[in-house]
Amino acid sequence: MKSNLxxxxxxxLSTGAAMTAAAQQKRQMxxxxxxxxxxxxxxxxxxxxxxxxxxxxxxxxRNGVKFTESFVANSLSGPSRACMLTGKHSHKNGFTDNTRxxxxxxxxxxxxxxxxxxxxxxxxxxxxxxxxxGFDYWDILTGQGDYYNPDFIRNGEKLHREGYVTxxxxxxxxxxxxxxxxxxxxxxxxxxxxxxxxxxxxDTCDLDSGEDKDYPLPANFYDDYSGRKAAAxxxxxxxxxxxxxxxxxxxxKDNEIHSNPALEAWGRANYERMTPEQRARWDRxxxxxxxxxxxxxxxxKAFAEWKYQRYMNDYLRVIHSIDRNVGRVIDYLRRNHLLExxxxxxxxxxxxxxGEHGWFDKRFMYEESFxxxxxxxxxxxxxxxxxxxxxxxxxxxTFLELAGVRIPKDIxxxxxxxxxxxxxxxxxxxxxxYHYYEYPAEHSVCKHYGIRTDRYSxxxxxxxxxxxxxxxxxxxxxxxxxxxxxxxTAKLTRRLKKxxxxxxxxxxxxxxxxxxxxxS
Length: 520
Description:
This protein is of the alpha/beta class and 520 residues long. The chain contains 17 helices and 16 strands.
């Protein structure tokens, strides 16, 4: 299937039919949940317009709610998806890290919506190992998925599709809404982009759009991780760990540039899966960059900063395609009179480091990784910003309440529907709980859990090390200065540890029963 197939062939309901369908669905609102993989809030212009512009994603913010204090429960793709589906923390849904298999027999919000008469579908990245359950239709990428000419599994049938993955996913979403779903039922569609996950491969049309830009280095790009042992142990540093062939696309035709053998092989394999036309456009863009790189002979800081610029240019070109396709889907809803009866959500499975601390990737309970964008458009609802502390375990109860479905008592999140409706909420959470489990693993980020209040972040790294970190987010949003154990912080630390334990008890995390460690 060509990536632009439905750009030309997407059908449009007649005005009368569309209005009839919308009228039938007034009782229960449709849900369109769009989630990209590793899309940092720093690269959505509704949050920060210094790096790029995302006008279509911003439409959701302008016409709905931009949550300014939005976070995840576990900053890793698979676990984050499991939290979203179940409304529960990782230790409760069982998918604590990407080595696990999601138990599809457990309660999820799509299953509960099905029971309430919704037609459900998931299209795009799944990344939970087991097959999707609770969906009338599923069409998912295999594993992490590929940017070019990806393989899918559609209701159990393996398919190969030609084109660029973000275009294909939007094509399939529009096709399902237009001609495959039962229009007499409300729908819940999960549209999950692979992009902008590593290795940030842009659509060929975006390779040719404009010259490379020079992006300013983050102030802490050369962080020395003083006072933060876990930060020093990681292996996601742009200078040291970003692969020149795999990540920076320097797979030269002369085979003179070499890197980590496994990563280099994957990088060259990504190139080989392209069509001749795709490779020609790719070569036109990257071959001159490769020639200049070879001639420059970069080392030290110059080499690190060159890697950063390549990373930023590739990543932000990938964002162009995401934004463009978000616009296509919103346009479809508008043309078919579905905007007045569809909740639209845009988010990411977690945050991402854009060179802060010298890093790419996520995992840490530091702001860039812990935070995630969350934009929600509710027809007739609130417009503007909301500063309540929200978390991805809140999505499931929100969708259930919107659909008029009773929220099960074992769901740990809180419905955001009152916030979307602009209602005053007298009692809201004062702190968030976080727990990351995947170690040892590719990026060597230590296991840790912690509490985040409106001002402070307290983190405990455990297992291979036993270290605490305390940050004053108001004065140190970059999490550079560990205050733990510093004079004058003892009372604050005791209070936060007490709150942390209460959260662990509230969410029934078994870690609370284990010895906290010698630094407690």
